[in-house]
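Supplementary Methods S3. Complex input for the uracil-bound model.
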Amino acid sequence: MESGNTYWHNRALLEWQVELGVTDAILDAPVDRYQLEAAKPAPKPAPAPAAPPPVPQPDTVDAVGIARATAAGAADLGALAAAMQAFEHCEIKQGARSFVFSDGNPAARVMIVGEAPGREEDRAGKPFVGRAGQLLDRMLAAIDLDRAASDPAHAVYITNVLPWRPPSNRTPDKDEIAMMLPFLERHIALADPDVIILMGNTPCQALLGRTGITRIRGQWAEVMARPALPMFHPAYLLRNPAAKREAWADLLALKAKLRGDT
Ligand code: URA
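Predicted complex, serialized as C-alpha cells:
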C-alpha cells in the first residue's frame, strides 16, 4: 500500500474510533497480543481433591501387652506400684480418687486378693478398710492372723485385682481384669507368699480363669505354683450371714494348710 493511502486509511480508522467514543490512547508502544498469549505460563493443573477425613479406627493399643512389659520391668514392690500407678490404659482410673496398691506385711506367708477398692478404700488409699474389711480383720483374727503383724507367720498381705475403684462399685469386666492381670501376677511373684486366698469371683476369674464361687469355694487350687483357696468375699458374708459357716470351714482349712497339716 502507498504511504498516502496508508495515511488516509489510518486516519479513517482513527476517526471511526473517535466516533465510537474513544478518547485516550492507552499505550505508547504497540502490543502484540498474540505473542503475549503464547508466552503465558501453562495453566496450573487443578488441585487434587482433598483426601477424605480419616475413618476413626478402633483403639489398637495392645494394653495387655503394655501391662505385661511394664510389670515385667518392675524389680520390686515399690517399682511395681509406681508402674501400675502410671499405667494409663484402664479407663476405671479416670473416675477413681486414689490408687490402692496393698496393705499389710509383704513378707507374710498369706496373700489375700480381693476385687477392687470400694468407696472407703478409695478415700483411704488402702484395701479392705470399709465394713467388709473390718469383717475380714475379725475373720483373720479368729485364726491368729493380723495384717499389722510383723511376724510373717501371723501376718497377711492384702491386695486387689484392680487398684482403682470402679464406678458405682460395679464388678470389673473381663477386659479390665485381663488388662491388670500382668500386674497382679508380678505382685504375687514379688511378694512370693506360701498361700493365696481368692476373695470372691473376681480374683477367681483373674487367677483361675473361672467363677462360680458358691461351687468352688473351699476347694484348693493352684496359682503360680502355690496353693490358692477361693473363699466367699466378706461383703457377701455381710449380706448372707448364713454363709459364715462355710467361711469358717475355709478359715480352718487355711490354718491347717499353714500348719502343714494338709
Ligand atoms: N472389696 C474388695 O474386694 N476389696 C477392697 O479393697 C474392698 C472391698
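Residues 114-118, 121, 127-128, 132-133, 160, 199, 235 surround uracil (CB under 6 Å). The domain at 63-259 is CATH 3.40.470.10 (Uracil-DNA Glycosylase, subunit E).
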